[in-house]
Amino acid sequence: MGSGKTTIGTVLAEKLDYDFVDTDHLIENDQKKSIEKIFKTQGESRFRDMEKQVLRSLDSSKKQIVATGGGMPCFRANLKWMKKNGLCIFLKMSVDNLQYNLCHGLNTRPKIAGLDPFAVRQKIIEDLKKRNHYYLQADIVIRNENDIDQTVQRIIKRL
Predict the structure, then answer these.
(1) Domain segments of the chain as ranges
(2) How many of the other CB atoms lie within 10 Å of CB of 8?
């Protein structure tokens, strides 16, 4: 959450002449609701089911960059499926930069909506503690510190 998956993914797809897919956008379009609304009305477990369904509906034979929600690799055996059907990239960021990015979009992130900056920082640390085990299994780990072009170039060199 907040690491630049959509931003970096869009630029990377353009440079590689691939399609770009954001699974959160696919879910929102399918449900005709924001992710925040889905969390509030249907709960996280149902949202994780939707993520799994959307992920497995993607055509892995297409040349595409897929941005997922930050929790997707951590639930429903999604990481195993992702690694089997594509190349996984983890955009690693410092807690400071994640906090900066997230504090500019609090109203659109259901897991941090309404939190003050200190609480956002604590949530980031908590999530990374739980999720880094999954994230570090990515095929490529790239440091992203908010320099889009540099990050994209480093990814392209590693492909």
Answers:
(1) 5-158
(2) 21
Specify the DSSP class assigned to residue 83: H
Measured between alpha carbons, how far is 154 from 25 in angstroms, rounded to an integer? Answer: 26
Q: Which fold has domain 5-158?
A: Rossmann fold (3.40.50)
pLDDT for residue 51 = 97
pLDDT at 107: 56
The rounded mean pLDDT for the chain is 94
Which phi and psi (to 5°) does residue 65 adopt?
Answer: -105, 130
Q: Which two tokens stand for residue 96?
A: 């400071």
pLDDT score at 5? 95
